[in-house]
């Protein structure tokens, strides 16, 4: 019996993926190919449904091509493979169209994508042209690996990044200095040597040895720390050696997993750490270099306990240096002290290479998930690093496993994912960043709203700022709005980030250092703007900026948040949240009076005007509302010189004093 197939007539046939219909129709029949934002539409009712549909249109691609009448064509059995191949091609083409259209909604990828990308700068990317291209492709943080290069080469990169930041108001790159740490490395070889399984090879603490059968090690206590029967790993397990015997100055091994041994390779002993200080003399020199050049972050290697972090922070305070500390979790010794280490730091990096060398490899995914969970519950930044797109060092496309690895890190809630050799010395650095951007963006679209850790609210339940961050997040998720926050320290923007609201967090600050630092945090788009003494004018300027740069649409609602430990417009710390509509009007047009609902919930301001103006203040004492309810108030659109209507208050939640 001859098989039959339904085909579209005319040009529409070539554009139709699996399932028939237009490109979008075909995607509708395959839920796995739909963006999560599309799938969530059914959950919203009434006005919320309309808002959800409007928001989803930014990331959904629905083909409007008219349907054509289908015709039934006979198909011979020999043509079946060709039809399947064509169908698969069209299906992949539809997915690519989804990604392309989603990427073009806003000019800067870091605005749309929430998970940030850390790129290691090296020989492949240390020019002005490449740093500019990396930033435009999706880089959010430039990492300087102090294991390679000298201070002069790193200073050049720092100056280029700062030049980029100064010339781009709508995008910013943070600078991270990654210390070398107490690494144990092999010495120099005249040329790479190939070792086969079963072959004997010797490591010695004698300096300057490099032959086909023996190489020196840069660690004087190497022989004392190692025992017969230990497994010695090169480059995190790319090669492995079983220790058979040792002398006063040498360790004799049998090659278990062979390969090419090059100069200055990193050495680990599974289950053990070298008895070296976490911060070496070279590290202190590099840290001082970072202070002098005002980097934003230190990534400290091989942190074994919280004392290391305290020591570094004490030094930074003595230098009056505002630099945050990221601890790299990469040694077996750090695991028992994980909680105290992360508590003392500003964030953590899951350095899976060395972690997998010192611990059983099957433990690494579980540790990654636990470290991410712990950081999120404490409100700390977390970066997933090592081998994320390793194959793209030499190949233009990633493996499917690498794509899944990125997606898992995004779904687990990492603030950032990191590229190392892929951008430092790889052949395709821009493609690697593009792949990471696209995979992260696609994965984020499938994550349900309000995936805030259950214990985060418990940890912060007695702190006013944390409660406001929580309710602002719930408001963003319910109303499908972005959040605008004003901050001089970055505190409130970071706090909001860890609650993971569905909308973008536009963090306006008048401090350049804060702007750069916020580039690391998930969902935060930092903007540098001078604050006026008049709060209303500052709010209007912020909405004007968002409208001008296409970050919000005309008439779109946004939540404005002012909260935190250091108030901007008051002698006391006043907290409030408003939901406003950003409106664009023609220049010179006067605002019209409209009726809007002003809503009070739970708390009110004890004195002074709210963010919405004097007419919105309700009587309250000690931060408690005497009466909870709704009241109608008249507010007026105020059209500024720039032609934007800034004060059309849709609603207000809040205000209280924090003593």
Automatic annotation (TrEMBL):
GO biological process assignments: photosynthesis
EC number in record: 2.7.1.40
Record-annotated Pyruvate kinase barrel domain positions: 113-433
InterPro entries for this protein: Pyr_Knase, Pyrv/PenolPyrv_kinase-like_dom, Pyrv_kinase-like_dom_sf, Pyrv_Knase-like_insert_dom_sf, Pyrv_Knase_AS, Pyrv_Knase_brl, Pyrv_Knase_C, Pyrv_Knase_C_sf
Catalyzed chemical reaction(s): pyruvate + ATP = phosphoenolpyruvate + ADP + H(+)
A GO MF label: kinase activity
Name of this protein: Pyruvate kinase
Organism: Panicum miliaceum
